């Protein structure tokens, strides 16, 4: 039996602002750590977790986890498209064996899985999607790592797409480990937010609304300072949207591990819940330049890695210091 539409709650999901009570969990997670609370519960009941991890080349892939240490690789946002490979087949096999399964991914990945499983008994499946800005091209990330490795003359040893521990939850700075040094940068982040490297389908994304087909939607709770004043400590707050009665059931089981405040869904309407970002008018130009140029041309023009941007940044820091 597949999940029926009657599992869906009212038109607007119940929203919560959430922080995991364990600060170490929160610091290891992108937002408030709700994914760890949900997956801990499933693992404790001998279930299986599917999510996005990094392979040996620091590229995003979906894998299967049955232990906490395997699951820990899913924590943290990887701001590139994750490769699914044969993962839906593994989910199906686990469900057919009667296992409890949590699948996490972007809204389109969750919707794709649900379509794939239309003939399967999904009563033991919990679908969790992330609110998704859009996914950048893995090729650009790969070229960026290659360029960084060459620039700093060493092998890449670790990556953090968004270094929350050093810069806080709100800021967006990537950190790349090269041999024994750590390089902090905003180059990839800057290129990402200019949107030329997002997948073409993201400009027509049909999941940019409060209604999602997953059981639970999780996100960064942007705007939490207005929705729940005093809750934000810049260490990460998750937005949780409960979409189905199945999601509601699981959420009630993990609540004891969370500081959770009920909110009005209309107070959490960040841009990716309203509509897709428009395709940049210079997207074609960007890719034409990309194909014929060195990667450094792209970092200079689109990653603010040029002398004018660097001077502007220094002036900004001096002005800020003088103001303080
Ligand atoms: C490409 C991308 C775009 C995002 N855009 C937004 C946004 O616009 N607004 C917003 O509020 N939040 C966005 N997020 C962040 C997302 O909302 C957080 O992952 C979520 O808040 C989880 O919080 P947590 O503390 O429970 O996270 P964690 O424990 O860090 O959980 C991470 C979860 O994200 C999944 N994940 C990580 N990377 C990927 C990937 N590349 N593809 C698919 N799944 C992935 C993992 O499987 C896991 O379930 C984005 C994340 C990604 C990867
Ligand atoms: S923006 Fe939409 S189409 Fe693009 S990856 Fe995210 S959910 Fe999928």
SSE layout:
Blueprint: E1 14-20, H1 23-28, H2 34-44, E2 48-54, E3 60-65, H3 68-72, H4 87-96, E4 101-106, H5 107-116, E5 125-130, H6 138-151, E6 156-160, H7 164-167, E7 174-178, E8 181-185, H8 187-193, E9 216-220, H9 224-227, E10 238-242, H10 245-254, E11 258-263, H11 283-292, H12 295-302, H13 307-323
Parallel strand pairs: 2-4, 4-5, 5-9
Antiparallel strand pairs: 1-10, 1-11, 2-3, 6-7, 7-8, 9-10
Structural account:
Residues 1-6 have low confidence and may be disordered. The chain is 36% helix and 19% strand. β7 and β8 form a beta hairpin. It has helices spanning 23-28, 34-44, 68-72, 87-96, 107-116, 138-151, 164-167, 187-193, 224-227, 245-254, 283-292, 295-302, 307-323, and strands at residues 14-20, 48-54, 60-65, 101-106, 125-130, 156-160, 174-178, 181-185, 216-220, 238-242, 258-263. The protein has 13 helices and eleven strands. The chain folds into two domains: 12-135 and 198-273, no CATH class; 138-197 and 293-323, no CATH class. It binds flavin-adenine dinucleotide and iron/sulfur cluster. The site of iron/sulfur cluster has 11 residues, from α5. Iron/sulfur cluster (SF4) binds at residues 106-108, 132, 134-135, 199, 201-202, 205, 207.
Q: Are any ligands bound, and if so which?
A: flavin-adenine dinucleotide, iron/sulfur cluster
Q: Beta-strand level of the residues, as a percent range?
A: 15-25%
* Strand order in space, largest sheet: 3-2-4-5-9-10-1-11
| Mean pLDDT over the residues | 93
Helix percentage range: 25-40%
Taking Cα atoms only, what radius of gyration do you get, to the nearest Å?
20 Å
Q: Return the string of H and E elements.
A: EHHEEHHEHEHEHEEHEHEHEHHH
Let me know the largest β-sheet: 8 strands, mixed
How many helices in DSSP terms?
13
Can you tell me the overall shape? globular
Label the structural class. Answer: alpha/beta
How far is the N terminus from the C terminus? 62 Å
């Amino acid at each position: 039996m597949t999940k029926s539409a009657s599992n869906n709650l009212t038109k607007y999901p119940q929203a919560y602002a959430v922080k995991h009570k364990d600060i170490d969990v929160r610091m290891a997670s992108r937002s408030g750590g709700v994914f760890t609370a949900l997956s801990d519960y499933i693992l404790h009941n001998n279930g299986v977790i599917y999510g996005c991890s990094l392979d040996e080349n620091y590229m995003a892939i979906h894998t299967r986890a049955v232990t906490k240490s395997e699951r820990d690789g899913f924590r943290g946002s990887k701001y590139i498209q994750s490769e699914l490979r044969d993962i839906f087949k593994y989910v199906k096999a686990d469900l057919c064996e009667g296992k409890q399964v949590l699948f996490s991914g972007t809204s389109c990945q969750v919707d794709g899985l649900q379509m794939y499983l239309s003939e399967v008994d999904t009563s033991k499946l919990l679908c969790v999607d992330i609110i998704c800005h859009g996914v950048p091209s893995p090729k650009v990330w790969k070229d960026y790592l290659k360029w960084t490795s060459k620039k700093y003359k060493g092998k890449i040893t670790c990556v953090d797409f968004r270094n929350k521990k050093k810069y806080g939850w709100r800021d967006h700075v990537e950190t790349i480990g090269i041999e024994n040094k750590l390089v902090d940068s905003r180059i990839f982040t800057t290129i990402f937010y200019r949107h030329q490297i997002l997948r073409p389908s993201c400009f027509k994304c049909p999941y940019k609304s409060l209604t999602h087909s997953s059981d639970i939607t999780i996100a960064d709770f942007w705007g939490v300072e207005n929705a729940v004043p005093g809750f934000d400590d810049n260490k990460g707050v998750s937005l949780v949207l409960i979409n189905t009665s199945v999601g509601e059931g699981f959420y009630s089981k993990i609540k004891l591990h969370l500081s959770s405040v009920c909110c009005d869904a209309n107070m959490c309407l960040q841009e990716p819940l309203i509509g897709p970002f428009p395709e940049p008018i210079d997207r074609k130009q960007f890719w034409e330049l990309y194909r014929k140029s060195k990667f450094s041309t792209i970092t200079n023009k689109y990653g603010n890695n040029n002398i004018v941007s660097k001077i502007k940044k220094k002036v900004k820091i001096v002005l800020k210091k003088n103001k303080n």
